[in-house]
Amino acid sequence: MDYNEKLDIIQNEWEKASQEAGLKKFCRDGLMYKGEIFSLISDKDGKKYLCRKKGSENDLWHKSKKRILFLMKDTNDNDNQDYREWVGRQDGSIITHRFFKNIALWLYGLYTTDENGVYKPFEEAIMPTIYSKAFDDFPFAIINCKKESGEGKISNQALWEYCKQYGHFLKRQVEALEPNIIVCGGGSGIVRKIVQEFIYPH
Fold it and tell me: What DSSP line would sit under 22-88, residue for residue?
């Protein structure tokens, strides 16, 4: 069984629990796909979007010395979508969207830093072709603490209350991936506190 298959089992249970609680905008996430890029037309807005199919992500992640997980707060206005399909841009080969550009830069920096702390110069990392290729080639995972699509922002208190209810699923999801580097994003430290409280309390 591969990593995303394990995550699907967990997220099937999580989504069922969410639906029983009256929630209807569950978004899946996990180990980012590394297969062929394809386009689809959204039922929601009629726009064309680029997506990625399953590929070599499982093997790449399993063999990688650095298994980097980006743990975020929640996803915005993406009802019932799957983060694992995202390619970080909607046209061309360069990532310009601020969120995904940041992910790509952090990924490149962390992945290319060696065991002696020697890292690539920023002048190299900031080159669009370099960080965009890192997003495409390096194995990494994105998990949102809150699986229900939000409206652009969420209070730290609301996120904490959500994790109190569903944190056991989040813990299982993170543990299934076996990351050795977790980047906690957003919320002035709230995501790190969620990790310490619900995932790795010891």
Answer: T---B-B-EEPP-S-EEEEE-TTT--EEEEE---SHHHHHHH-S--EEEEEEEEES-TT-BGGG--S
**Helix, strand, or coil (residue 116):** coil
Contacts of 88 (CB under 8 A, 6+ apart): 95, 97, 100, 101, 103, 104, 132, 135
Distances in Å between the Cα of 162 and the Cα atoms of 19, 105, 152, 167, 186 are 14, 29, 16, 8, 16
What backbone torsions phi and psi does residue 48 show, to the nearest 5 degrees? -85, 135
User: Is residue 36 within 8 Å of residue 55, measured between CB atoms?
Assistant: yes
CA distance 119 to 112: 6
Smallest Cα–Cα separation from 44: which of 149, 116, 114?
A: 149
Can you give the C-alpha Rg of the chain in angstroms? 17
CA dist 19 to 11, 34, 146, 166, 169, Å?
12, 30, 14, 13, 14
For residue range 65-123, what is the model confidence (pLDDT) as tens digits? 999 999 999 987 777 789 999 999 988 789 999 999 999 999 999 999 999 999 999 99
Residue type, 79: D
Domain residue spans in the chain?
3-199
How do beta strands 140-150 and 48-52 pair?
Answer: unpaired
Read off the pTM: 0.94
